[in-house]
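>> Question from a student workshop board

For tomorrow's exercise we were told to take the sequence and the ligand below, predict the bound structure, and bring the output to class. My setup keeps failing. Could a helper post the expected result so I can at least see what it should look like? The ligand is uracil.
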Amino acid sequence: MNEKVLNHPLITHKLAILRDINTGTKEFRELVTEISTLLCYEAMSDAKLEEVTIETPLEKMETGKLNEDNYAIVPILRAGMGMVDGIINVIPNAKVGHIGLYRDEETLEPIEYYYKMPDGISNREVLIVDPMLATGGSACATINRLKQDGVCRIKLLCIVAAPTGIKTIEDNHPDVEIFCAVVDRELNDVAYIMPGLGDAGDRVYGTK
Ligand code: PRP
Ligand code: URA
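>> Workshop helper replied:
Here is what the output should look like for this input. Compare the format with yours to find the bug.
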């Protein structure tokens, strides 16, 4: 099992508001940011620290610091962009790469329309962010593309995951850990997550 589901009353509370049809764009964006910060906190729990000596006002001490330059955040456009601020809240110097994908409504296959990564991407740990893991096609295509570029340390952070999407990643990329806020029941016949939260991109950007 490569997925870690955040199981916490605060997450359930925030998801209840996020999912609600009556929640407007402003609050939706704020909640996506907050939940993303909490996901990032969990995803970084195995981060390697560099040993450093610092001086407090009272004495010197040995402690650890993160080399933030080792990390890149890769949002899957569009909806993934909504999660970037939440990650940058805790890793403010992480680089950001972008991949643009949309699901063809007929075939449900992801179509790539944009790809731009920071220099030295193959040496960084990559946190892919996308609020929705439905069929897993978009996340899988993103992982394939990053691996073609030599990236070997990848984590996937999503807010709502479907069992199908988790299985797709586990079958195709067993090395990729998935961090999600919740796993929902199933996909409907047009591959929307049920009960889900609707179209994440439209809700982040207020386009419908
Ligand atoms: C949504 C979502 C994921 C994808 C998930 O994006 O943000 O990227 O669908 O579905 P999958 O797991 O079946 O691939 P969408 O294609 O709607 O594009 P958008 O973010 O531009 O709205
Ligand atoms: N993409 C979304 O935005 N929502 C879903 O439920 C599935 C894919």
